[in-house]
């Protein structure tokens, strides 16, 4: 009985030892596989893998590389430089029959490499790239996985600054399409073809936050290019960004409206308050000019007119018009004062001349009664048949017809001076014209935005 128990113990111990040795040998097999498929004289990374021919079997066709990437973040979208910066995990996958190996019954799922120069790599580049760099902290963020069937997966994390030509005619009510283009640099479509991975070629991180834009959608497409040296495979993804209008409403539109309204305060000030009205007009004009120059400093000097240019230009015109209105009021006030002085001088002269005439008439009444009696007076009443009398009666009837009542004229008659009338008319005209401009502006550009979106 003791012998049987001892035999069972030795058998179990031997089984554990064999299992442990099998695990150790399994890990050692990974090195053997790598040496077997990538050893000296066994694999040449300069030769591209064989591609699929027309029948779908491995032959002399082009190598097919499937592309997909994970968009991690979008750090900025620069309107002035017309560029945007992204960080993404980029992946390529292709089939290389030379890298097939034994997976030992599914225990060896894949081999992992960190040196891209050990295997053949597609010569992909980003055609609209301005700047780019890899990430090497703490270790290089790159790996290559080789699966037993010869499938190769290349993954790397990169940061790119890409050009994005923009149309700013509707700025800041615009939408922009920024592209990311990937193409082969040296291999033509006879040797290398890029394809989007089926299913979900582009993945975007959840809760992607941009300060002044919203990523509405993205579209994948192909963009093969033909040159003198051949046709090259190309892929592109279009990112559609919508500009957030709330920022510009708070920072630009509302302050401009407030400046225009403040410039209208001078219409309610007394026309004699020259320092107050001049300082108010000049201050609002300079503030509006500074606001306009600050807006243009953040935008490229394009040759066409933007929506923000129309807004700031009209607001600047209203502020400048309010300042010119005071100049007109000041001129009209001085003209009213001059006319009032002339009227007073005329009345004084008439009074002095009337007194001299009265004295002369008294002298004539007392001294020359006989002469007055000899004057032959003309009759005041004409004969009924006189045609001249009838014509004069008709003219008198025409001139004596009562004028039609005019509400505007009767309302303006309450203000005796022209300078006061100009102020009163400006109080009504400026707000009405500015309100009409707002209706036309917002209806025009909002409809154009909807038309471009559709």
Number of strands: 16
- Enumerate the spans where pLDDT stays under 50 for 5 or more consecutive residues: 18-24, 368-382
What is the radius of gyration? 47 Å
Alpha-beta classification: alpha+beta
C-alpha termini separation: 90 Å
Enumerate how many helices there are, as a single number. 8
> Percent helix among the residues?
40-55%
* Beta strand %: 15-25%
* Mean pLDDT value: 81
Largest sheet: 8 strands, mixed
Strand and helix map with partners:
Elements: H1 2-38, E1 51-52, E2 58-59, E3 63-78, E4 83-95, E5 111-113, E6 124-126, E7 129-134, E8 142-146, E9 151-163, E10 175-184, E11 192-196, E12 202-204, E13 213-222, E14 225-227, E15 230-232, E16 234-243, H2 245-263, H3 274-297, H4 307-367, H5 369-374, H6 387-399, H7 407-412, H8 418-453
Parallel strand pairs: 3-11, 3-12
Antiparallel strand pairs: 1-2, 3-4, 4-9, 5-8, 6-10, 7-9, 8-9, 10-16, 13-16, 14-15
Helix pairs in contact: 2-3, 2-4, 3-4, 4-8
How would you explain this protein's 3D organization?
With 454 residues, this protein is α+β, with helices and mostly antiparallel strands. It has helices at residues 2-38, 245-263, 274-297, 307-367, 369-374, 387-399, 407-412, 418-453, and strands at residues 51-52, 58-59, 63-78, 83-95, 111-113, 124-126, 129-134, 142-146, 151-163, 175-184, 192-196, 202-204, 213-222, 225-227, 230-232, 234-243. It is built from eight helices and 16 strands. The longest helix is centred in the C-terminal third of the chain and has 61 residues, at 307-367. Strand 8 (142-146) and strand 9 (151-163) form a beta hairpin. It is 44% helix and 24% strand. The strands form four sheets. Strands 3, 4, 5, 7, 8, 9, 11 and 12 form an eight-stranded mixed sheet that branches. It has a four-stranded antiparallel sheet with strand order 6-10-16-13, with no helix packed on it. Strands 1-2 form a two-stranded antiparallel sheet. Residues 18-24 and 368-382 have low confidence and may be disordered. It is rod-shaped and about 145 Å long.
């Amino acid at each position: 009985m003791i012998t049987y128990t001892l035999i069972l113990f030795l058998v179990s111990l031997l089984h554990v030892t064999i299992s442990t040795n099998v695990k150790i040998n399994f890990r050692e097999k990974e090195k053997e596989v790598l040496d077997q498929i990538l050893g000296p004289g066994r694999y040449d990374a300069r030769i591209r893998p064989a591609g699929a021919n027309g029948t779908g079997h491995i032959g002399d066709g082009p190598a097919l590389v499937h592309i997909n990437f994970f968009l991690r973040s979008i750090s900025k979208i620069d309107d002035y430089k017309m560029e945007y910066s992204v960080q993404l995990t980029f992946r390529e996958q292709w089939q290389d029959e030379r890298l097939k190996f034994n997976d030992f019954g599914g225990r060896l799922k894949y081999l992992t490499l960190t040196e891209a120069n050990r295997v053949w790599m597609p010569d992909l580049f980003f055609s609209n790239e301005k700047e780019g760099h890899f990430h090497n902290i703490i270790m290089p963020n790159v790996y290559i996985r080789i699966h037993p069937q010869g499938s190769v997966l290349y993954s790397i994390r990169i940061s790119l600054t890409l050009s994005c030509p923009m149309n700013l005619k509707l700025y800041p009510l615009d939408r922009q399409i920024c592209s990311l283009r990937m193409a082969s640099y040296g291999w033509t479509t006879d040797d290398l073809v890029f394809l989007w991975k089926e299913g979900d070629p582009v993945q975007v991180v959840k809760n992607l936050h941009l300060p002044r834009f919203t990523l509405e959608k993205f579209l994948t497409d192909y963009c093969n290019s033909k040159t003198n040296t051949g046709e090259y495979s190309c892929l592109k993804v279009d990112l559609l960004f919508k500009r957030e209008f709330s920022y510009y409403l708070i920072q630009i539109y509302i302050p401009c409206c407030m400046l225009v309204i403040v410039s209208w305060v001078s219409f309610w000030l007394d026309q004699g308050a020259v320092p107050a009205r001049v300082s108010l007009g000049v201050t609002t004009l300079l503030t509006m000019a500074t606001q306009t120059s600050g807006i243009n400093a953040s935008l490229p000097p394009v040759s066409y007119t933007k929506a923000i240019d129309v807004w700031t230009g009209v607001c600047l015109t209203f502020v400048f018009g309010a300042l010119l209105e005071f100049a007109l009021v000041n001129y009209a006030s001085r003209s009213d004062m001059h006319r009032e002085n002339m009227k007073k001088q005329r009345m004084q002269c008439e009074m002095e001349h009337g007194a001299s005439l009265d004295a002369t008439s008294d002298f004539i009444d007392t001294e020359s009664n006989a002469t007055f009696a000899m004057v032959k007076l003309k009759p005041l009443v004409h004969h009924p048949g006189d045609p001249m009398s009838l014509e004069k009666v008709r003219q008198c009837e025409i001139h004596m017809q009562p004028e039609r009542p005019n509400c505007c004229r009767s309302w303006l008659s309450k203000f005796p001076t022209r300078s006061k009338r100009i102020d009163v008319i400006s109080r009504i005209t400026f707000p009405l014209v500015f309100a009409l401009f707002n209706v036309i502006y917002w209806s025009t550009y909002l409809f154009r935005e909807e038309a471009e979106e559709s």
